[in-house]
Fold this sequence. Notes:
The chain is of the alpha+beta class. About 30% of the residues lie in helices and about 15% in strands. The protein has helices at about 40-45, 45-70, 90-110, 125-135, 155-160, 235-240, 260-265; strands spanning about 1-5, 25-30, 120, 135-140, 165-175, 190-195, 200-205, 225-230. The strands form three sheets. A four-stranded antiparallel beta sheet has the order 1-4-5-8. A two-stranded antiparallel ribbon has the order 2-3. Helix 2 (about 45-70) runs antiparallel to helix 3 (about 90-110).
Amino acid sequence: xxxxxxxxxxxxxxxxxxxxxxxxxxxxxxxxxxxxxxxxxxxxxxxxxxxxxxxxxxxxxxxxxxxxxxxxxxxxxxxxxxxxxxxxxxxxxxxxxxxxxxxxxxxxxxxxxxxxxxxxxxxxxxxxxxxxxxxxxxxxxxxxxxxxxxxxxxxxxxxxxxxxxxxxxxxxxxxxxxxxxxxxxxxxxxxxxxxxxxxxxxxxxxxxxxxxxxxxxxxxxxxxxxxxxxxxxxxxxxxxxxxxxxxxxxxxxxxxxxxxxxxxxxxx
Length: 268
């Protein structure tokens, strides 16, 4: 059998996931009519509304550029259609009209709808918060195998009256942006058309870093997970705790062992 533990000592199978203060995923529904409700939801209400407005405005601008940009937007690159109405103000008028309509939808008609979930905030530092909120300990439990040659080999752990277990530590993280090794990641000549119609060629440095967000929130889809060395201070208490629902398992008695002792015998 196996169990997943949090670094606060709680087994995931025993956590009340309906409670926003204790759930494993550190996310809160900020809607005043959502399951988290008040008072916790109200603390994140303005944050969620700000995120929703930023996203809606960003997607609206992308839509305007995709729909009207080829005909009405000023651009240095020559593309069909851009020369016919590049001095027109229609795209700016359309942007004003659609942005006003969007604000009406967000602020007046649907102020509480489609609010994104936000991360639960804690008074911990970033490192402590990642250890508490984004780190899990997985432990596998099983009885010791019978000794095939009891006169030749004796299992000292089995003689101690405890069963066998193996453990691993998993952490959620956001990858750091890496340098790109590609031809377009270096200085290159760029030809642009000036407002007076002249064509100028200049050398531009192109950003050679990955276009990857590095902030912690639930809008960032770059979260991933990896196995890391089991160094959390919670490992020792977890290994000595009776796992929920496994009455047959006999946890070890590690006494005054420290994480230094565990690291000396742990190979991962």
